[in-house]
Structures are given as C-alpha cells and as structure tokens.
Amino acid sequence: MSVAPPEQRIWWNEPIEKVELTWIVVAFLWGMFMFFFMIAWHFIGQQNLNNEAYRIAPSAYETKVEQFVQKTKVREEKGVPVVRPAPGSDVYLLGRLWQWWPILELEQGQSYRFHISSLDWQHGFSLQPININLSVHPGYEHVITLQPTQAGQFGIVCNEFCGIGHHTMTGKVYVVQKKAEGGQLRLAQEVKQ
Ligand code: CUA
Known about the structure:
By secondary structure, this protein is α+β, with helices and mostly antiparallel strands.
C-alpha cells in the first residue's frame, strides 16, 4: 500500500463523519463519567485512601520518626528497628533512598493514625499483597487513618522509580492478633496468598 496524499488538499475543512462524531461523543462522555466516578471510588473502593497532607521539612519529619522509634522500639531485624506502637496511637514511616523505615508491628482490628513522608525523592508506597498504593513526597506529611483487618506479614515495595536502588527499596509491616487471654501479642501466621 502506498501512501497517497488526501484527495482534497484542504481535508480538514471537510464535514465530520457522523460515525466519527458519535464515537468522539461516546469517548468524551465515558471520560467525564470516569473522572467524576473517582469520587465514588473513595466510598465504594477499598484501595482509594482519604488522606490528609501537611507541609513539613524533611529534616523535621526525620526527627519525628526518630523520636517515635526511640519510644516504641521492641527489637531489631538486621539492624532495622521494629516498633510496636500503642493501639490507637500515631505511627510514623519514612521513605528514603532506598529504604522504608522502621518495620511496623500493628495490632489487628485497632485503628492508627499512619503518617508517611519522604526524606529525599518521590517514592511510591505499595503495600503487598493488599495492593494499597500512595505517592510519597518530600515536604509533605501524609496522614491516613488505618485499621489493619488481616493479620500476617506484609511487604512494602517502592513503585515510583527512584534511582539505581529502587528495586531494593522494601519494608515490612507485621499485623498481630491480640490473644484472647493474657492480652499478649503474638505474631500471626503468614498471610495465605
Ligand atoms: Cu523509592 Cu523507588
């Protein structure tokens, strides 16, 4: 097939085909529907979060997280602190090249105020295998009310390309169950995929 010039030299002045116009209208209306339906997904979807965001200097956020870790640390895993904050309290997580820090241990069924920010570049918080995703920006502290519904071990990966160590930027969240008697926490079994 050869490429021939259009029959009419001034082709853009031709009246639009009815079928083409129909499809333009259909695509436009669908686009508008999807746009406004984003609001609905906040209510009926389980993965769109209603979050708050506050301006904060990265160094100030780092200080907050360090103080939080000092207060709530229960052990270490390969040099990374594991924190067990009190149910209902504020929980802090930071993203930086190339790490999610610290490791969180939360209690199933309890509600937390979950804070997250970046110290350097933009990172993508992605909780696996649940598939909850958040863009994490330096200079903004995002706050989400979070209630773990499922016990187990969850992974955090970075889903926003952030340089040569991007693929190594992982983190961990444990969700533990409260024992019926004794009130002690125990590590739950791994989540079945
Ligand atoms: Cu952080 Cu990719």
